[in-house]
Amino acid sequence: MRKKINRHKFTSLEKILLLILGIIVFKFIISFVNLPLLNFIPELKTEAALKRKYLVLVRLEDNKEYSKVYNLLSNELQKEKSLSDYLESMEKSDKKNNVKSSQVYINKIILDGNAGYIDRTKTNCLNENCSQTKIQRNYKKWVYENYHWRVANTPAPRCIRKEPYNIAPEFERALNLMKQRFNDWYKQYNTENLADWSYLNCLDIQYSNTDKTEGIFTLDEEGSNIDRLLIKVDYSYRNNDDLLTAFVLVHETTHANNYLNSIMSGDKISCVEDEVSSFYNQLLLGGLFNQEERESLNRRLQKGYNNLNNQLKISWDLLDLKDKARKICRTEDFNNCVMKEVIPLIEDMVRNNPYYQKQCGLN
Length: 363
Ligand SMILES: [Zn+2]
Hints:
Layout: H1 12-32, H2 35-38, H3 47-62, H4 66-71, H5 75-80, H6 83-97, E1 101-112, E2 115-125, E3 133-145, E4 148-151, H7 169-188, E5 203-208, E6 217-219, E7 229-234, H8 242-265, H9 271-288, H10 291-301, H11 310-329, H12 334-351, H13 354-359
Parallel strand pairs: 5-7
Antiparallel strand pairs: 1-2, 2-3, 3-4, 6-7
Bound molecules: zinc ion.
Residues 251, 255, 275, 278 line the site of zinc ion.
């Protein structure tokens, strides 16, 4: 004989109560299942898995749950910094940045072997109603280790392109010359490892019909972005030699670098500062050229100021300022005095030049 089961029938009210209870239990479990527990579940080496993990990081950072964020750092980063040091540094940076809330938009996810890059735009609200913002676009580097995605080295990579753009060989040679002279200089001070030349792969230098009143070389901000820094060079420049090209290119690559910094950090430098730093680097490179290169440049300058093309006139003007700085210093100490004293002189030159007055809106 079958045993009669007395089945309980739920009333509608009981069903609703059960549903609410279910939701509460579910939420409780979710809040309890924190990252160490999830760490048992391996993640796939895919864009989707990396995106999921990144969104976890964003949520934790928003909630300032930094001890959980610490669990997401790579082994290397955890070895570099203890949890307490990390928490302290985050507290400091929160105080400094004073961001009320932020929103993240993922532009692209790029996988490369065991590395993953998130190209993201972060809009930081600097006040409660978000009328003041700071927008940063940069890469967050991740590394796939022990079947998990973890946050890799903290400084955001400047350019993740592995290959340079297809640029004319004369530009390639000029960039190499520039890199070599700066590296020789860094080597003297054992700082060559700190030089980040990765941005060279993001430089796209192309001949075009530029408006010559705007200069022969221009950084085209409209055509530029985080992975493409477009420098346009007027066709009329074609027949110049590598030395002069390097001298002019260092000016534009400084603009490109300043532009990249402003995208990445969300901080803009002024138009005058931008020009001063570009001229400064031109003068610096001029001083780093070897004997033969300097003699070659000097030979051309001997034609007299009025017979020089614009680039050589700039070279002349900058050397003139350097002489003035040398007189102020009363020494030949290039690094510790002359190159410091020359900065305000370059700034005066920019501020008093009608071309830059117009460009920088100084009138
Ligand atoms: Zn400029």
